[in-house]
Write a structure and sequence with these properties.
It comes from Trametes coccinea (strain BRFM310). One of its GO terms (molecular function) is catechol 1,2-dioxygenase activity. This is Aromatic compound dioxygenase. The chain has 344 residues and is an alpha/beta fold. It is 33% helix and 18% strand. It contains ten helices and twelve strands. The strands form three sheets. A six-stranded mixed beta sheet has the order 1-4-3-8-9-10, with no helix packed on it. Helix 6 runs parallel beside helix 8. It is elongated, with a radius of gyration of 26 Å. The site of fe (ii) ion has 4 residues, from loops.
Length: 344
């Protein structure tokens, strides 16, 4: 195998290949037929034959065989032009060059093609009756404080309208789930996450809430608003070309953990949010959309835990939701049934 140093010098690469051939002759395939589009042995057949003969890993072979099959079918179905192929290559090259640690254009592209949501659906099947899941997105952090139920997650001065979230964690039998932790993270009233502020000193609008022994919990905070995904790169151009916008519907992210239960990562959306039906990353499942109410009685604000002068805008948004978790065993049963079905 040529070293990195050798790869930079064509003369050294040639020498390395000749040296290698002195010790081992790679397996070759007899070229018995030309592969032509108008024959019964196309380039697709030849690529698949080559991989089948040489690839040692069964899963790699399965994935690439299917990928080649679909890619070639796509090119034939659309009669892909060379100019379109060149444009696609330039687009993907740009996606690679413009990706950073904080903005991966390939992940964004996968999200906007609905692939991320599909892979999540395939990998986290839920028994009927359980809360649906969705992707966590890029704004989760590990440093959120662990807090008792009833805490406030918003630091004083956080932009936005007051909100209280009142929830419970139950199982499929309707029983309270014990020792549940609800990891919450959300944007503020400007649609901005704390880590997007350059002067962030400590976590804001996020926390790990410990549920009460009966599975109930609440937290006070700020009503999040819609925000755009990064659209200054190729993924933004992709959305624009398709007549789509980059704005995510308002939402709160949750990850729920409890002993014996399958971990759930999801997000909830208020029904009044714009962009629910045109969410760019296809995470707005209908079952996750919640109808909020408003509390305008200032006496009730104190009962809900808000301090004097804390409520702004003359109302508190009340957001209620009952999460339903499957046990680990119930999820394994769904996975086994699905695997069985895919073999048939
Ligand atoms: Fe988000």
């Amino acid at each position: 195998m040529a070293s990195e140093q050798q790869m930079k010098n064509p003369l050294l690469v040639g020498r390395a290949i000749r040296a290698q051939l002195e010790h081992e002759v790679p397996q070759d395939l007899p070229l018995e037929r030309d592969f032509r589009e108008d024959s019964d042995y196309t380039i697709t057949d030849h690529v698949q034959e080559l991989h089948k003969s040489l690839c040692k890993d069964p899963r790699t072979l399965e994935l690439i065989t299917s990928l080649v099959s679909h890619l070639h079918a796509f090119a034939r179905e659309t009669q892909l032009t060379h100019a379109e192929w060149t444009k696609a290559v330039k687009f993907l090259t740009r996606a690679g060059k413009e990706s950073t640690d904080y903005k991966n254009e390939f992940v964004l592209l996968s999200d906007c093609l609905g692939l991320s949501a599909l892979v999540d659906e395939i990998n986290h099947p839920k028994p009927p009756g359980c809360t649906d899941g969705c992707e966590p997105g890029p704004f989760y952090t590990e440093d959120a404080p662990t807090l008792p139920s009833g805490s406030s997650l918003a630091k004083p001065g956080t932009t936005g309208e007051s909100m209280i979230f009142i929830g419970s964690v139950k199982n499929l039998k309707g029983e309270s789930v014990k020792d549940a932790t609800i990891d919450v993270w959300q944007a503020d009233g400007d649609g901005v996450y704390d880590i997007q502020y350059p002067d962030r000193e400590e976590p804001n609008d996020r926390g790990k809430i410990l549920a009460n022994p009966d599975g109930t919990f609440s937290y006070r905070g700020i009503l999040p608003t819609a925000y755009p995904i990064p659209s200054d790169g190729p993924t933004g151009d992709f959305l624009h070309a398709l007549g789509r916008h980059p704005h995510r519907a308002s939402h709160i992210h949750f990850t729920l953990k409890a002993p014996g239960y399958d971990e759930l990562t999801t997000a909830l959306y208020p029904s009044h949010s714009p962009f629910l039906g045109t969410d760019p990353v296809f995470a707005t499942k209908k079952s996750l959309i919640c109808q909020l109410t408003e509390e305008r009685d200032s006496k009730r604000w104190a009962e809900l835990g808000f301090k004097e002068g804390e409520v702004r805008g003359g109302r508190v948004w009340v957001w209620k939701y009952d999460f339903v978790l499957p046990t680990i065993e119930q999820v394994e049963q769904v996975k086994a049934a699905r695997a069985q079905k895919s073999k048939q």
